[in-house]
Amino acid sequence: MSRGFTVIELLVVIVVIAIIGGGSYSLYQGRREQALANIIWTDLDAIEGAITNTAKSEGIDTWWTQGELGTGSTNPTLQTIASQVELEKYLAKLPEPADSNLSAYLYDNDGDTYNSTNCSNATYASRGVNLRIRTLNGSRFAKRALEKIDAIHDNNNGNCGKVTITTSGNTTTLYYHIALNSADYPSTID
Questions:
Q1: Closest Cα partner for 36 from 172, 176, 177, 143?
Q2: pTM for the full model?
Q3: Residue 169 included in any domain
Q4: Which of 29, 92, 95, 129 could join 109 in a cystine, given CB atoms 3.0 to 4.6 angstroms apart?
Q5: Is 80 exceeded by the pLDDT of residue 42?
């Protein structure tokens, strides 16, 4: 006489498989966020190096403002900067965001300065000379990747340090500070 599985036994097996699958998906999602965060950090570091080396080779002693790059008050993309200065001399390929839910990398220098004594105030997060990238379409995945960059490389301190993050509605913006003060001008960087 052949005996089959009971409904309870089948349900137990299904629940166990679902628990294992859920845990695996969470682990996979965390690894994807970490990989995206690493790509963005590497891009930002390479862009900073290229911009710094270009500024030094051109002999400038202050950072270009957005107006000097011909964009007025608009934050220029890397392509715009490369059309104005020899950025590609130090950056063989201009990086593009590794996820469709992220904006292009933008240069931000509208002449304001970063004040580290007020860094707990979110209005100071975007000050100084920055590279900027932001989430599009309210992507939680991209937002968590940007937050991981702050957590890993800047002690998860939000509005202070090399990396600052702001959130407004569904948009999260990461600011990667190239210059925080006058000591960071190209003429003083070794």
A1: 143
A2: 0.77
A3: yes
A4: 129
A5: yes
